[in-house]
Amino acid sequence: MGKPTGFLEHTRSPIPDRAPLDRVKDWEEIHEDFQEENLKDQGSRCMDCGTPYCHTGMTISNMASGCPVNNLIPEWNDLVYQDKWQDALDRLHKTNNFPEFTGRVCPAPCEGSCVLGVIEPPVTIKSIECAIIDKGFKEGWVQPNPPKSRSGKKVAVVGSGPAGLAAADQLNKAGHSVTVYERADRIGGLLVYGIPNMKLDKKYVQRRVDLLAEEGIEFVVSTEIGKDLPAKQLIEEFDSVILCCGATKPRDLPIEGRDLDGVHFAMDFLTKNTQGLLELKDITAFETAAKGKDAVVIGGGDTGTDCVGTSLRHGCESITQLEIMPRPPEERADDNPWPEWPKVYKMDYGQEEAKEIFGADPRNYLTATKKFIGDENGKLTGLLIHEIEWKQENGRFSPVEVPGSEREIPAQVAFLAMGFLGPEDIIAEELGLERDSRSNIQAEYGKFSTNMDGVFTAGDMRRGQSLVVWAINEGRAVARECDRHLMGETSLP
């Protein structure tokens, strides 16, 4: 601990965001550049407490408490305070393969469990993490480091999201020859097409992918396993196969009017938008575009927020976000104690921007959709919505319509952002893989082995929809177990 009084001398000051009315004019990341002196002050606020819950990675009340990859947070906070940035980078890379991703898109459960957060705003852990890795690349400290020898074993990784990339990186470090298959035209999975540019500029994804390629990982794009290439062929050609295909089945809303022109899944909207930006096309010309339209987002999670922010950048006429859950309290409730993730009201970047443009938080809480309304040409014109209340029956809570609360709202485009049900079926059916009650591939955490010898699975495909940082955790862990399977022992962490 560099400065015992740091948390008394300095207030919380994360890397600032650009002004909402400025940033909605472009697709650049919302954050400003970090200032080293400010980050050093923030590092000094770390108390180096005797019980640092920030890096425990526990699951409490079905939510992460502390960092799931067990980042050595107090150590690199102190090193930043001491101006030892390269040492901080070394400590950061010991536990996290891709801090440039988590430092931008992770909701920071580490900060929710920071001990300082009990009495003061927590340490700006996420900002410090992002600053360390960005400085590392800028200074040239991050360089390709291919393995000195090869094991002679070949591993196929299916899916190039954070779990697949983490698994590939670790197995390559162990000396195995790794080939990553991706059905999209670019490597990165949801990091490319699931998260918009203003949260994660794709240049940072490509920078890391280029580094992994220089270290010896082979990438194959535009190839869908089970369709373009049989999964059984991978079994025959490789010594082991790791499935990291994500949970990509979106939750639908099968109500009247669902087939109207203008109702889209959120990921279709976000994917086409990013594709258009990368290919320098007019994104406002796509059928999913929100330009000049009353846009409605159904779902209150991160994907819903991304749809709000993207619609605003298209130039929507209005934006409404429907959330079936109640508005969180301003402060922790008695049943949500530290170090649990704080379930409190906050506005993310999209809601902040909407408030600046239209004057209010776009979210309507405790609100559900009853019907999509269309015109004679089959085009969406509005939604019939109603308020709900949660009532308990037979030990389970369910939403019940509030009588007399129906109303119509205008909409020419609506985005379904209600989460995901699980992985797609094609590979599981071809290989006869066992699945759990939620349709995820059956594999025990810590072992990651499926019912087929030599076939492993990790990430959202195994655990269901989750955080990028949990995907990295599982990617690292499945690599360790795959290495043990191939070699009889492992030195991977």
Features of the shown structure:
single chain; alpha/beta; 18 helices; FAD/NAD(P)-binding domain; 5-stranded parallel β-sheet; 493 residues; Fumarate Reductase Iron-sulfur Protein, Chain B, domain 2
According to CATH, the homologous superfamily of the largest domain is FAD/NAD(P)-binding domain
How many strands in all? Answer: 18
Q: How much is the average pLDDT?
A: 96
Q: What fraction, in percent, of the residue positions are helical?
A: 25-40%
Which regions have little confidence, pLDDT < 50, spanning 5+ residues? Answer: none
CATH topology of the largest domain: FAD/NAD(P)-binding domain
What is the first-to-last residue Cα distance? 26 Å
* Largest sheet: spatial strand order: 5-4-3-6-18
- Counting DSSP H or I runs of 4 or more residues, the number of helices is 18
Radius of gyration: 23 Å
Q: Describe the sheet with the most strands.
A: 5 strands, parallel
At CATH's second level, what is the architecture of the largest domain? 3-Layer(bba) Sandwich
Relative strand content: 15-25%
Question: Any idea how many domains?
Answer: 3
Based on secondary structure, the structural category is: alpha/beta
Give the class-level CATH name of the largest domain: Alpha Beta
